[in-house]
């Protein structure tokens, strides 16, 4: 698996799984009806932020990550990231590779920590993955997320010092 900078030519491969994940409404706080044009603008953020894709040996896009400052101004020393893995390629270590890549990127860019602001409590695979990479839950917003089948569940704030 190769992780490389994403380009606009990757968007047609990203959009189908991006749309499926967002519209399912189970793991992200994005609008469920987010259209393709707006979604591309939300995902492809300008520098110093970064967007990457994980691709296999054939060039198939397996997943993507968006890395950015968590806050501006005096809070700009904390990084954040968002990940999406094509469900057709789950269980192959794509999420772990993207997360580890983003931690290395943040460290290399001089960030002091990474913080995820809204990890859905019921997304147990993501919570377990992030914990295994060294993130801790530092707080939970009770009933901060309205899951389509589980109802109101917490949103974790997860942190890792770099």
From TrEMBL:
GO molecular function: acyltransferase activity
Domain of life: Bacteria
Record keywords: Acyltransferase, Transferase
Iron among keywords: no
N-acetyltransferase domain residues: 1-162
EC number of this enzyme: 2.3.1.-
Membrane keyword on record: no
InterPro entries: GNAT_dom (IPR000182), Mito_N-acetyltransferase (IPR052742)
UniProt-listed PROSITE patterns: GNAT (PS51186)
Name of the featured protein: GNAT family N-acetyltransferase
Pfam families, per database record: Acetyltransf_1
EC class of the enzyme, as a word: transferase
């Amino acid at each position: 698996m190769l992780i490389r900078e994403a380009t606009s030519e990757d968007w047609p491969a990203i959009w189908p799984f991006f749309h499926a994940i967002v519209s399912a409404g189970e793991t992200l706080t994005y609008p469920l009806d987010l259209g393709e044009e707006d979604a591309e603008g939300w995902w492809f953020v300008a520098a110093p932020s970064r967007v990457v894709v994980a691709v296999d040996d054939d060039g198939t896009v397996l997943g993507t990550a968006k890395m950015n400052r968590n806050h501006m101004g005096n809070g700009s020393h904390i990084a954040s990231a968002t990940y999406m893995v094509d469900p057709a390629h789950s269980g192959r270590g794509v999420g772990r590779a993207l997360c580890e890549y983003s931690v290395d990127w943040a460290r290399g860019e001089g960030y002091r920590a990474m913080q995820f602001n809204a990890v859905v409590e019921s997304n147990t695979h993501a919570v377990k993955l992030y914990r295994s990479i060294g993130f801790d839950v530092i707080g939970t917003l009770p009933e901060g997320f309205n899951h389509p089948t589980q109802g109101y569940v917490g949103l974790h704030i997860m942190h890792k010092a770099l």
